[in-house]
Design a protein that fits this description.
By secondary structure, this protein is of the alpha+beta class. It has two domains: 194 residues, Nucleotidyltransferase, domain 5; 57 residues, N-terminal domain of TfIIb, CATH 2.20.25. Helices cover 30% and strands 24% of the residues. It contains seven helices and twelve strands. The strands form three sheets. Strands 1, 5, 6, 7, 8 and 9 form a six-stranded mixed beta sheet that branches. It has a three-stranded antiparallel beta sheet with strand order 3-2-4, with no helix packed on it. Strands 10-11-12 form a three-stranded antiparallel beta sheet, with no helix packed on it. Helix 1 packs across helix 2 and helix 4 packs across helix 6. The two termini are 28 Å apart.
């Protein structure tokens, strides 16, 4: 990675269809091991996906991009063909230094890998990730870990309400409903990224952006700089010391994102 450029931090979210089990639609995705595969008439597919590049220092969300099955010429012949979506997602993920999402480690990224494997697409290295669902479970004791609840609790834009039946109709090839689902999906980017910004200072295992960008060399701790390890901002202040097995370091508090990270050796 080149030094001196801003980190490319990607927030993404996908929407996927139901499976059709013995002519009955179902959302039983978590207990798929209990369903005999021979009863799966149509497997799930990715209906649409959205993403945006984040500015961690300014805590701003860039332009939201989206893609759906209707964006490709294959839609009229086979509305379940999500190959174009998967290729687009693999491209943006490969350009990222850090990938953020809500339940993205267990859901979105694995779903993308699953479909990439089906199509025999070239595999990519997944960059470091932050899953806000996992982070919230690890560092907070919220009444709910859902994105809708966290957005409301933390006072940030909430998820868009999706009219009843829209998701089902989009699953079945209704282009009008799919457009509504895309708008809903884009709303999740705004809500999810805003929740991430609120949680940033509390995610103690957040990947060190300085290390990702090649600004510090892990074996040589003395090379650490007075920058925020979470957002890479220079707008920081000393906040005591941090002791570890490798030595004593300056504790750095970021005035932009609020994170406390390890600075240079004392």
């Amino acid at each position: 990675m080149k030094k001196g450029r801003a980190a490319r931090v990607l927030y993404l979210d996908i929407e996927n269809s139901r499976m059709i089990i013995s002519k009955f639609p179902t959302y039983v995705l978590w207990n798929i091991d209990r369903i005999d595969h021979k009863y799966i008439e149509h497997d799930w597919y990715i209906t649409c996906a959205s993403w945006a590049w984040l500015d961690l220092e300014k805590q701003k969300i860039g332009k939201i991009e989206s893609v759906s099955t209707a964006d490709f010429t294959t839609y009229k012949k086979d509305f379940r063909n999500d190959k174009g979506i998967v290729k687009a997602l693999l491209k943006v993920i490969s350009e990222a230094d850090l990938v953020i999402g809500h339940n993205s480690d267990s859901f979105d990224l694995k779903k993308i890998n699953d479909r990439a494997t089906v199509y025999g697409l070239e595999s990519i290295d997944i960059p470091p990730t932050v899953d806000t669902l996992k982070a919230n479970k690890k560092y907070r004791k919220s009444s709910s870990n859902s994105l809708a609840y966290l957005a409301r609790q933390l006072g940030v834009p909430t998820k868009i309400d999706l009219p009843k039946g829209v998701m089902h109709d989009a699953d079945e090839g209704c282009e009008k409903s799919l457009k509504k689902l895309v708008a809903y999906n884009k709303g999740d980017i705004i809500s999810g990224a805003s929740v991430y910004f609120k949680l940033m200072p509390y995610i103690k295992n957040h990947p060190d952006i300085r290390r990702i960008m090649g600004l510090i060399d892990t074996p040589r701790e003395g090379q650490r700089t007075m920058q925020c390890g979470t957002c890479n901002s220079n707008n920081v202040k000393k906040d005591g010391i941090y002791k570890s097995k490798t030595g004593v370091f300056t504790r750095v508090r970021c005035k932009d994102c609020g994170s406390v990270t390890k600075g240079p050796k004392v």
